[in-house]
Amino acid sequence: MTPCLQFPILNHIPPKLRKFLLTVMMISVCTVSFNCYSQSCKTIPSHFKSYEEAIATVKKLHFTVDEDVNTSRSTFIQAAHYYSCDGKTGYFIIRIKDFEYIHENMPIAVWKGFKGSSSFGTFYNLNIRNKYQMIVN
Description:
Layout (H helix, E strand, L loop, with lengths): L14 H28 L8 H10 L4 E5 L7 E8 L4 E8 L2 E9 H9 L3 H8 L10
Antiparallel strand pairs: 1-2, 2-3, 3-4
Helix pairs in contact: 3-4
């Protein structure tokens, strides 16, 4: 019998039962991970009291799409991050001159355009700024 290195406590259990138990444990872990992940997108409030609250909430949740882009070549944009639950629209957080702005319901196609643009600042000003604005209460 080969020792079970990951779970030494299972070494005394017959191999077939051990394999079954490990399979059940892995399925349980995957199910719990999926359920926790799903709840993250479902728990996003529809309204925020401030932009700071919105940014902090979005940054701590788990999303299907969670991407950033290297903005080091830009003199205007310091950082940019995109978060989406459904892979169609999402939140866009951008840092300009040490201040973060958040946009919502931004299509992923706009994010892809931003990432591939030759000038992040120009693309932002023409295609994102004053569009997809988040309104707080």
